[in-house]
Structures are given as C-alpha cells and as structure tokens.
Amino acid sequence: MNKTLKVELSNKEEILIAKELYRIRAKWLKDKGIEQWRRSEQIHSVEYLMTQQELNQFYVCKFNGVIIGAFSLQKEDIFWKDKENSLYLHAFVSSVNYSGYGRFMIDEMKKICKHKNKKYLRLDCRADNEKLNEFYKNNGFYLVEQRVYSHGVVANLRELKIV
After folding, report:
1. Which helix (H) or strand (E) holds 130?
2. How far apart are CA 68 and CA 147, in angstroms?
3. Residue 77, SS3 per DSSP
4. pLDDT tens digit string along 16-69?
5. What is the pTM (predicted TM-score) of this model?
6. 3-state DSSP assignment of residue 86
7. With b meaning 16 or more CB within 10 Å and e meaning fewer, what string describes 125-147?
C-alpha cells in the first residue's frame, strides 16, 4: 500500500475532526499531569477553529486521508512586540494515536513560510513544559525571550529563521 502524508489547508467539514484531536490531546496532557492547555475549550473552540479556517490559516496533517494533526499559522501575534515578517504558530496538535510526525509538520510549516516569503516562524509556549521546549529546540526554534501571560504563566517566545 502506498502511504501518503500531507499537510493542507483545512475545509469546514474537517473542523469537528480537528476539534476532537484537541479534546483527546488535552485529556492526555491532563492525565499525564502536564500543564499546557489550561483553557483548552476557549483556545480550541469550534468557533476559533472555524475563524482560523475562514482566514485560510488553519491546516491539517493527513496520513492516508486520516487527520493526525492540525495547526494554525497566523499573520499576527499579541505576544511579539515587533512586526517582523513572520507567521505565528498556534494550536499545534498531533493525534495521540500517531507519533513521530511533529518534525514532518514543522518541515511543512517551513515550506509554507518560505512560499509566503516569511523571514521567521514564531511561537510561544509554556516555559515549564520541558519536553515541548526540547522538541522545539531540537527542531531549530531558538529562545528569543520569556514573557508572563496575564494569568501568571511564564511563556517562552521561540523563532525559527526561514532560509
């Protein structure tokens, strides 16, 4: 069987499937005692995902036609002070049933950034999530600075230079 793996802009019909990925991953994180998406229902609501989809900023990763990951690449971000020519990664999720595809999705994000002539791919994530920060570091994201969210959580701002 020829296996296919691809990232593409989502369509409206895929939003509920993606929403389920977030729900399952949030439960998995909670069960493991990992503080990550404390406000997951707000952050990953169907309305939020639909808005991102309508703005052509929401992508899904498919393996043999099955959605195994999703993310949003946004044009702006409130946590970054400068307005550098960048895309901002949000709502990055992978299925708990498929592991090892995060690097592939980041490689696809880099291609999207390059196609859109962006200088950086940027993100923010919890500073206390060591495993997640190690993942981003191992995939080329450098720590730029730390910020404190309004609810007191310290975040790492990371960026990857697109070449």
Report:
1. helix 130-138
2. 31
3. coil
4. 999 999 888 888 888 877 666 655 455 678 898 999 999 999 999 999 999 999
5. 0.90
6. strand
7. bbbebeebbebbeebbbeeeeee
With contact defined as beta carbons under 8 Å apart, do 157 and 145 qualify? yes
Closest CA to 106 of 118, 89, 91: 89
Query: How is residue 111 written in tokens?
Result: 């291609």
Q: Where are the alpha helices (DSSP H) in 57-115?
A: 102-115
Architecture of domain 5-122 in this structure: 3-Layer(aba) Sandwich (3.40)
CA atoms within 13 Å, Cβ hemisphere of 113:
26
How far is the CA of 81 from the CAs of 36, 43, 99, 100, in angstroms?
Answer: 23, 21, 34, 33
Contact of 104 with 61, CB cutoff 8 Å: yes
Q: Give residue for tokens 């950086």.
A: 120
The two structure tokens encoding residue 60: 């899904």
Tens of pLDDT, residue by residue over 103-132, are 999 999 999 999 999 999 999 998 988 889
To which residue do tokens 């962006």 refer? 118
Torsion of CA 142, 143, 144, 147, to 10 degrees: 150
Report the distance separating Cα 33 and Cα 35, nearest Å.
6
Domain boundaries, the chain: 5-122
- Tokens 């880099």 belong to 110
- Whole-angstrom distance, CA of residue 70 vs CA of residue 52: 11
